[in-house]
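Q: Structure tokens for this one, please.
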Amino acid sequence: MDPLLLVLGIAILAMLWMSSRTRKQQRAAQDFRSLLQPGDEVMTGSGLFGTVVAVDDEHDIITLESVPGAPSRWLRAAIAKKIEPVVPVGDDAPDDEVQADDEYEDDEYDDEYDEDQDDEGEVPDVVVPDDLSSLDPRDDVPPPPSSGPSKDGSQDS
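A: Here is the predicted structure, written as tokens:
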């Protein structure tokens, strides 16, 4: 058998397989868009999030509301995906579990705070510098030599 025919046959089979996958994805997207109804949270292909307010099946137009009171009209094909609503954490969470996460070892932090206090129970003032120049401990280090002209106009050699 000719190797060229074998390669050509494999290429044709690969193209048929890929096109069938693409058709399945397109069919799933079309089915999803046809089932849109008011109240669904969706995202458009351009990234706009909104709630479906109205569906016009005759003209394939979906009316979205991303901000309350500001509807916008979109082609049905522009809707990319449906957004599942986030389940809010309500009052169902027990209070003792929330408090347990916020608690810490009081003794450890209290001891560190006590060490920072003076005899009268006040924390001493901390001096914060305005810029970094006051933090440089190497004031005695001379600046690096310059390679340009000096102040009197002569060249350094």
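A few notes: Confidence is low (pLDDT under 50) at residues 98-102. The chain is about 30% helix and 20% strand.
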